[in-house]
């Protein structure tokens, strides 16, 4: 007998045409249910042996019937990328959506978008990566997107395995920070005019991320206690909470950061809401590109300082604090890291071995 009682129901288990079929059906243990399950098994066998899908339609939820009449996957990678995006994007930040979309539309869609999910092979990705001029970081980010699409399809039962799991991560070479020296900082701040000088002075002596600088509100500043509370960030023109829970923090202000704020409050470039505003429009910043292109880069060029992106202000702060002997855990907290692992990994050369 190929119908057996199990806890909570019955198991149909038989082999037909050298293929095994097995399914558990919840049902009470009595003669009526057992007879019904046996009849159902007989119908399964007949439907499979006759290849009669009309009979199979009577059992749309049957795993056995699904297996027997599986016509294969009809979804392309592009089809399922749309499903994945729609289902997941609510949990993503604006920058994550933009990053995923850029990687998908630039690399995944033109190379493999038209392939069925079952047609894709890991070797296809490796061949593309071998001739790509992208950094290992970008290749790994593309791999991750592809992998997530296949995970969604596998979890939905559309495919049985994830071919992207066979793609190994590419080795990434961490770029060591290039902080500015004290003399370079002095030159930069002397060259910049108000309120740009105060913006970058505050950046150098707090280590805030660019979005956190743009989003900083006067209500989050406590000059009497020399503290700022990081509660919002502006990315691509959108105000939102900082990137991680650890990024929601209170930062102790360096005396030079306090000086920048006090100087700014004595100028006409003061807004009721944001600490830093665009002097050309007298409105809050939505994007940082203008600061980089038209203020930061020309200033470095004019005073003959090798170009580094404004984010190096954050690296400068971390390296300065560590060089002064500050506790790495304190520095990590100041910068919004969950622990000091990132500090150790990124700023190891500035750590005091005796700390």
Which key terms come to mind for this protein?
mainly alpha, 47% helix, 3 domains, 355 residues, 10 strands, three-stranded antiparallel beta sheet, DNA polymerase, domain 1, hpI Integrase, Chain A, elongated
- Output the helix-strand order: EEEHHHHHHHHHHEEEEEHEEHHHH
> What fraction of residues sit in β-strands?
5-15%
**Segments where pLDDT lies below 50 for 5+ residues?**
none
- Largest beta sheet, briefly? 3 strands, antiparallel
Query: What is the quaternary state of this protein?
Result: single chain
Distance between the termini: 73 Å
Query: What structural category arises from helix and sheet content?
Result: mainly alpha
| Number of separate structural domains | 3
Tell me the name of the CATH homologous superfamily of the largest domain. Intergrase catalytic core
Mean pLDDT reading: 88
The order of strands across the largest sheet is: 1-2-3
Number of E-state strands: 10
* Rg, Cα atoms, Å: 30 Å
Shape: elongated
CATH architecture of the largest domain: Orthogonal Bundle
- Which percent range fits the helix content? 40-55%
- Using the coordinates shown, work out and report the CATH topology of the largest domain: hpI Integrase, Chain A
CATH class of the largest domain: Mainly Alpha
Count of helices? 15
């Amino acid at each position: 007998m190929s119908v057996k009682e199990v806890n909570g129901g019955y198991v149909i288990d038989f082999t037909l045409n050298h293929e095994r079929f097995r399914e558990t059906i919840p049902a009470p243990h009595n003669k009526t249910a057992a007879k019904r399950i046996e009849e159902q098994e007989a119908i399964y066998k007949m439907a499979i042996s006759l290849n009669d899908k009309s009979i199979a339609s009577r059992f749309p939820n049957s795993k056995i019937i699904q297996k027997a009449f599986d016509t294969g996957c009809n979804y392309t990678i592009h089809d399922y990328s749309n499903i994945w995006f729609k289902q997941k994007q609510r949990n993503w930040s604006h920058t994550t959506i933009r990053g995923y979309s850029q990687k998908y539309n630039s690399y995944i869609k033109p190379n493999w978008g038209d392939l069925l999910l079952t047609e894709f092979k890991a070797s296809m990705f490796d061949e593309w990566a071998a001739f790509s001029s992208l950094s290992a970081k970008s290749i790994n980010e593309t791999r991750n997107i592809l992998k997530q699409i296949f995970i969604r399809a596998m979890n939905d039962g559309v495919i049985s395995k994830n071919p992207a799991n066979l793609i190994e991560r590419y080795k990434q070479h961490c770029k060591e920070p290039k902080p500015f020296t004290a003399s370079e900082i002095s030159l930069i701040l002397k060259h910049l005019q108000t309120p740009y000088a105060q913006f970058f002075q505050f950046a150098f002596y707090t280590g805030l991320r660019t979005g956190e600088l743009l989003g900083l509100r006067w209500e989050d500043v406590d000059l009497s206690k020399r503290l700022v509370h990081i509660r919002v960030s502006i990315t691509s023109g959108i105000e939102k909470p900082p990137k991680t829970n650890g990024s929601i923090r209170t930062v102790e202000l360096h005396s030079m950061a306090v000086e920048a704020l006090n100087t700014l409050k004595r100028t006409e470039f003061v807004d009721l809401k944001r600490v830093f505003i665009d002097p050309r429009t007298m409105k809050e910043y939505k994007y940082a590109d203008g600061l980089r292109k038209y203020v930061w880069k020309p200033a470095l060029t004019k005073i003959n300082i090798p170009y580094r992106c404004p984010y190096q202000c954050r690296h400068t702060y971390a390296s300065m604090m560590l060089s002064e002997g500050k506790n790495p855990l304190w520095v990590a907290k100041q910068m919004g890291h969950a622990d000091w692992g990132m500090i150790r990994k990124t700023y190891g050369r500035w750590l005091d071995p005796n700390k």
